[in-house]
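Feature request, filed as a ticket because there's no other form

It would be nice if the structure record came with a short human-readable summary line next to the tokens. Right now we just get the raw output. Example of a typical job, pasted below so the devs can see what we mean:
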Amino acid sequence: MLPIEKVVSTRFTGYHSWANRRSAVLCPACSWAYRHPPLRTEIHLVSRRHRRMMQLTPAGLATVLAEPVTADSAIVIPESNGRKHVFPDAAWGRIAALGAQIAWGSREVEVLKAMARLRRLGFSSLSLKAATPPFRRLAALGPDRFEEVLVDWSELKQWRHAAPWWTVGLRATGPSAAQSGEANA
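Raw output as currently delivered:
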């Protein structure tokens, strides 16, 4: 057991999520979760079935999220600035992101596919936030793509105001995921 002050700073704001806030010590596993820098900056998948934890690239995240998240997996997506400890919030069958525990089923898989298609067509993360596609980009694609784009655009409506889902989608469909060709998995 390690004294809390040796693990987290006095500015640590995550005490509210601890089961025993009065404890003066943390177990070795909890200490590691708070002290290992990649757990605050990199995407991770923990698998009970495979008995391992692995760091994921955005393309790897896209591949994993091409199917529903099962009860034997936990995915952790920290904020890119690394300021918040997300790993201790991991839960089986969920994605931990932006302080939320996200269930990822077949509906989320379909919305992610729509986002990936739009990103591959050249729509930026900023433009995807708008209620309608930017006309210039839409016009550049030609009229034969209008219906496809509008259908996919409407799929994103539910995520536009749900920051955790939006963040997960953008991380899985970002430029590095799309360039690898795995974003459409």
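Something like this underneath would help us a lot:
Confidence is low (pLDDT under 50) at residues 178-185.
The longest strand covers residues 43-47.
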